Amino acid sequence: MRHALFLGTIAAGALVAGIASADTLSDVKARGELNCGVNIGLVGFAAPDANGNWSGFDIAVCKAVAAAVLGDASKVKYVPTSGQTRFTALSSGEVDLLARNSTWSFSRDTDLKLDFVAVNYYDGQGFMVRKDLGVTSAKELDGATVCIQTGTTTELNLADYFKANNMTYQPVAIDTNAEGEQQYLAGACDAYTTDASGLAATRAAFADPSNHIILPEIISKEPLAIAVRHGDNNWADIVRWTFYALVAAEEYGVTSANIEELAKSSQNPEVQRLLGTTDDLGKMIGLDKDWSKRAISASGNYGEIFAATIGEQTPIGLARGLNAQWTQGGLMYAPPFR
């Protein structure tokens, strides 16, 4: 047993070493395509249309990275992943990054050996019920049946919340949001619980969204973040700073419409560095000087992406809230480009 344990330790060490020496950037360039792990289907965040064309808030992250690295936002293979398969898909190398409504937590960061490079949506867990249930607060759900996705942080949060409030519930396990929607609409559960943004996206797809209400309680912190494999620091830097380029662009008023003009005329040193007019930040991460300009041009800056996919003027109808720029009272804050 001792000998076997020793060999197992060596094997584990070799695996970690292999991951640590990985060069995802070279792999993606050689393949000519970015493999991006996304939701199986959540309107507003990631969903294919009838022709198989993907769109959504998380899809824009994939496009931005592809544009930065490959020079073409369309060079993405979207890999649908469930709550149970998403991290395995990333760890195994099936996908190069995960942009899929995934909460950044201690155990996922450390035990699963993932690197969460940036939070792209600050969220919290909520509850949705049918209006005719007559419930106006989550604290009125004692004894309720609750649809919940397995393999998610929502399972523990749900148990903690009901225990803290001396309530009981009957879980109805589901694997995907589509199954949850089906079960909830069929009356298999009194309430559906997941991230509040996911509830808004799910409700928007209903034939009668006005007959369903999202209860006011938010019972957890759910920083939904972009993830890469542990051990490839340069790839993590590329994905991290590509996302922050979108955030910084909004802060400095760089949009998909004016980006070419500002690249030539802006006198703001931060904008000049961001757009590659001065300095060559791309060289530091193995990219050219126009990488961030291409990333921003792919789908627009963070604010443009938010407004077009999940914002208040879309069927999802989400307000910026915590996801507003730090200058507007929110938490979106890009480190300096210098």
TrEMBL record:
InterPro entries: Bact_solute-bind_prot3 (IPR051455), Solute-binding_3/MltF_N (IPR001638). Pfam families: SBP_bac_3. Residues 1-22 form the signal peptide. The keyword Transport applies. Keywords: Signal, Transport. Residues 33-262 form the Solute-binding protein family 3/N-terminal domain. SMART domains: PBPb. Coiled coil: none annotated. Belongs to the bacterial solute-binding protein 3 family. PANTHER family: AMINO ACID ABC TRANSPORTER PERMEASE (PTHR30085), AMINO-ACID ABC TRANSPORTER-BINDING PROTEIN YHDW-RELATED (PTHR30085:SF7). This is Amino acid ABC transporter substrate-binding protein. It comes from Paracoccus pacificus. The lineage of its organism: Bacteria, Pseudomonadati, Pseudomonadota, Alphaproteobacteria, Rhodobacterales.
